[in-house]
Design goal:
Blueprint: H1 8-14, H2 16-19, E1 29-33, E2 46-50, E3 66-67, H3 78-91, E4 104-109, E5 114-119
Parallel strand pairs: 2-3
Antiparallel strand pairs: 1-2, 4-5
Length: 129
């Protein structure tokens, strides 16, 4: 049984051939836009954004995907993460310029080889996204 989460399964089926360009492995990202979750980013369509910015960028990504923008690159630093969140609060989304209620940031911790998500306005609080 295939679950069609906000049209994601149908999008994968429609983009199957292009998605094969991602290669073997796990590819982290997020389905966002029209009718996906509480924040729809003012979009009339749905999009998929890849998180692995060390592998994917605007020039080498599959045509059906976007890549999240890099807001900070450096040592793990909670002060830098909070500064990125404050910048988003003041200036809005970098993923969808002009959208003033961005969800938050994805943090890749190299040593842990893991992604973490910090959301706004109340990270971890029920109903914050």
């Amino acid at each position: 049984m295939m679950i069609n989460n906000y049209g994601f399964a149908a999008w994968v089926a429609a983009n199957h051939t292009v998605l094969l360009e991602l290669g073997v492995g796990t590819h982290h990202g997020e389905w966002f836009g029209h009718s996906v979750g509480k924040r729809q980013y003012g979009l009339n369509e749905r999009r998929f954004a890849l998180f692995n910015t060390s592998r994917w960028n605007a020039e080498n990504r599959p045509a059906c995907c976007e890549v999240v923008p890099v807001l900070y690159d450096g040592l793990f630093d909670t002060t830098a993460i909070e500064a990125c969140l404050e910048d988003l609060r003041v200036n809005g989304s970098r993923m969808v310029p002009g959208f003033m209620q961005p969800e938050g940031v994805i943090i890749y911790h190299t040593a842990a080889n893991s992604f973490f998500k910090k959301t706004m306005p109340n990270d971890g609080a029920k109903g914050n996204i």
